[in-house]
Specification:
It contains six helices and five strands. By secondary structure, it is of the alpha/beta class. It has helices at about 5-15, 20-30, 50-60, 70-80, 120-130, 150-160; strands at about 40-45, 60-65, 90-95, 105-110, 130-140. The chain is about 35% helix and about 20% strand. The longest helix is centred in the middle third of the chain and has 13 residues, at about 70-80. A five-stranded parallel beta sheet has the order 3-2-1-4-5. The chain has a single domain (about 5-160), classed as Vaccinia Virus protein VP39 (Rossmann fold).
Length: about 180
């Protein structure tokens, strides 16, 4: 029996990308993370490649984009090729919780609507910090459920249709960055 396609499977097939705030939020991450032409940026959870292509075009920086989904990576590579940016953007399969990348490698690490999905969010954030060079920046654009607890129908929808693996966390439960940013 074939598994029911997830939201992300469908998004990969149609080339859908989504994150809170759209390009305005991406532009804010660019500003806050001081991304410019000399930057080497890691985009975690690149999906179909919209953000890495946008970064390469807007900032003229080098980008390594990763996603846990092989199909998303295929789509992102297609976009990079179509936009003629293969010299600036590399796309690979990788898990945010276990990045197969060296310590202190990137000037900036960004994620957009990604870090809410890994089972171990703290481990993912620790990985972002590990691969960011000293003086670099980590920028997250994430959504947090402010009303605790969320209605059961929202939890059911997130678990089934959006492939969220855990119950939404409140702001106080989310991720403690204080121990990784010192």
């Amino acid at each position: 029996m074939r598994a029911q396609p997830t939201f992300f499977d469908c998004a990969a097939e149609v080339g859908l990308t989504k994150h809170i705030g759209g390009l305005k939020a991406t532009d804010r991450l660019i500003e806050l993370c001081h991304i410019h032409e000399a930057s080497f940026v890691l985009d975690v959870g690149c999906g179909v490649g919209m953000t890495p292509v946008y970064l390469a075009k807007k900032c003229r920086c080098r980008v390594l984009a990763v996603d846990i989904s092989e199909r998303m990576v295929e789509r992102a590579r297609e976009r990079v090729t179509r936009e003629r940016l293969r010299e600036m953007v590399d796309v690979r399969v990788a898990d945010a919780q276990d990045l197969p990348l060296g310590h202190d490698t990137f000037d900036a690490v960004i994620t957009e609507s990604v870090t809410s999905f890994p089972q171990d969010k703290q481990r993912a954030v620790n990985e972002y910090v590990r691969v960011t060079r000293p003086g670099g920046h980590v920028g997250l654009n994430e959504s947090v459920w402010l009303k605790v607890p969320p209605p059961p129908e929202v939890v059911a929808w997130a678990a089934q249709d959006v492939d969220a693996s855990v119950q939404p966390l409140s702001p106080g439960e989310w991720v403690d960055c204080s121990n990784v940013l010192d």
